[in-house]
Design goal:
29% of the residues lie in helices and 34% in strands. The protein has 134 residues and is an alpha+beta fold. About 4% of the residues have low confidence.
Length: 134
């Protein structure tokens, strides 16, 4: 029985190089997202209800001239403590908002809400609308 170990090693070496080449090409063609958050959270002045932040880099204008932003709320002043994440649509002209996504869950039929009773959201909307001059 004669085993050709050199031939097996060569096949294994070629197999390894071939897979490495494919991995390198795939990583060049489809780069993975960078693991930094890339978010610039701006804090709204806290109230006794909690703290609110919004990310200006997430700001988008809709066809109807509304604003969509990412925000987060925490009952404490520590940003990451028990935070609730929102994607909000804001109608600056009517001073209304709706939560389109809450903690990653898309809301089926989000309703427009008034900001009258919520100082944090009212301040957030005022700041965001001033930012975009809407």
């Amino acid at each position: 029985m004669n085993l050709d170990l050199n031939g097996s090693k060569e096949k294994l070496h070629r197999f390894f190089l071939y897979n490495l080449l494919i991995l390198v090409l795939l990583s060049i063609m489809f780069p993975a997202p960078v693991m930094s958050s890339g978010e610039e959270w701006i804090m709204i002045p806290s109230t006794r209800e909690g703290s609110q932040w919004w990310d200006p880099q997430s700001l988008k204008i809709t066809r109807s001239n509304n604003i969509i932003i990412n925000s987060r709320f925490s009952r404490s002043s520590i940003r990451d403590a028990d935070s609730i994440y929102y994607t909000m649509e804001i109608d600056c002209s009517k001073n209304l908002y709706k939560d389109k996504v809450i903690n990653g869950i898309t809301q089926i039929k989000p309703r427009w809400n008034s900001v009258e009773k919520d100082l944090l959201v009212r301040t957030l909307i005022k700041q965001v609308c001033l930012e975009e001059n809407l």
